[in-house]
Amino acid sequence: MSELQELESAIANTLNPDAAIRKSAEDQLKQLPTDFGLNLFLKYMSSGTQNEDYQLQAAISMKNIIVKNWTDSITPDHPNPPISLQTRNLVKEHIVTFIMNAPNRTSKILREAFSVIAKNDFHENWPGLMPSLVGLMNNPDPAILTRVFKTANKIFHKYEYTERSDPLWKEMNYVLKEFAAPMLQVSKALLEVFKTASDFDQFNKILMAFKIICKCFYALNCQDLPEFFEDHMKEWMGIFEDILSLGSNEHYDISLLKCKGAVIEAISLYLNKYYEDFQAYNTTFMERVWTLLSDPATKKYEKFSLSAIKYFSLQVDKDEFEGVISTRFGILFDELIIPNLIPSDADVDDFSVDPEEYFKMDLEEADIHTKKRVTLNFLKRLVKIFPQQTLPQVEAYRAQLVQKYNQGDWKMKVAAINMLLGATVELYTFRFGVTGHKTTPEQISAIFSDMIFPELDKPGKDEVKAIVQTSCLKYLFFFRNYLSKDILVNVLAQLCDFTQSDYEALVLYALCTIERLLNVVGTDNRFLLTKEDITPYLKTLMIGICTPLQDSVNIYAIKCFLRVVNLSQENFAMYAEGASGALQVCVDNAISMGGSSEFNHQLFESIAAIFNVMKGSEGYPTNLETKFSSSFSRIIEQNLTDFMPYVFQLYGFMISQSAHLSQNYEIILKSI
Q: C-alpha dihedral over 580, 585, 588, 590, to 10 degrees?
């Protein structure tokens, strides 16, 4: 049996359903000497095997060898790297051909290997690469052209984020000299073919090629405006305008929208970085994009909407924007703003399936790349630059959305709250809430009384009601510093019940909101809510806070617990015994589940707060010492360094409060 036959047999066995045979084959391939193995896989890929699965496995093995070993270059101190110079040259000679001819899945894997090689060798140690790619542009097949540009973009992508340097400029100048002109010619030719083509499959392939060309265009223009693109801007803008003008068709709608989205990203780059050069084309493109937004077909592809919103966000402070949009603010809200503030099906799924993710994306504003967040940022810019036109629209649409909500469309209430927050909040942090706004305390209180407080009568029993309530809690969380003490006391009484909701997301919002309400500071620099204000609700609060701590390491619950204990002080004493039992379970959970450093700190601060509250009570501190001794001993015996400092501090505190040392301390001293 030849080497290639043995290799193919091993590759076939890696796909065997028998785990033992599969593992044996995988080990056999891994044990191949690096240089010999890479050569062998090269020969196999060149042999013309027709089995796509075997090709894929061979490509994966090649990629793994390259990723692991290619960076070990030949140097005077390292003359014999794992991959020899001869093998490196063979790989560079053949890999582009493999990428062009392999099935799609295999080609994608090979491009990953290509990316590693190009990162290390291009351009000085791979002079034949760019001429090879340029030569392939003569192929009229758009599928091949797509692969050419995808491969090239593996080189160009780094230009988008790499810091400027002389080596980078040298490489980019070389690339632009070799690649820019052929890319323009190919783009012109593809556009002409598209206009005369009649085959829908051909349409899709051309649009895919255009999409990747736009990505290459973006990367090549990221660092600065190259002279070639400046000289040929009219031609490029003509191509982009023609693409945006292409009519939709159900057979290639998504491909067309992807392509148009890539065009919008390209012109957004020019709008943002090279406005003076681009200004002559700006009004035309704004009209084109505006027309697209009114096309129902554009709603099918979320990334297109995202690109369009970002584009208009960049336009807000440009001279041409007011002329195009001034009479269309209502349409702007109807077509662009309101639809993107309505909860999506994915949001609804996250609410139940991944409540922590829902919470972080919404209340902690971690959703920086979503349609909602980009739309809210766009709305903020509109309010900042056109307050006279925008704020009346916000108020009018608020009334419309609330009316639709009252008629049974629950998503409209969520959209209305999102819109209000986007339009009125200037400065916000999770810790301090809103610290700058485009409204008045009177308006904040009026909206809270009219739209928010009535929804917080009791926790929702169905998912729809619960989602609406989380949005209402979000408004409260944001504007907590601008609401009166009477309002906060009343809402606190209602929020206590929310900590026992069946919906985890609603519990998280409630816990977080309660903890922040108890930190609101009044005009006298004292906490607005006092221990007398929260004492009537301590029992309900403790039940709601301690429940999620029994089976999870919930940072929001433990922070809320600590704030309640510190604020209520001696009024908490009657609940301290039961609460300490909950904290003991929480310590065991943290040991088993591995809580974050912040959670651990808050947990042991809470235990210390309990110790302080119970000081002077009957049986103190022996009762607490007994309750926590098993958990603390476990920490010491297992040498859990994350917890040890806290445990010894607490033991030191208990010793200072004890008349004599118990036998437990003798055991501890022996452990030390």
A: -90
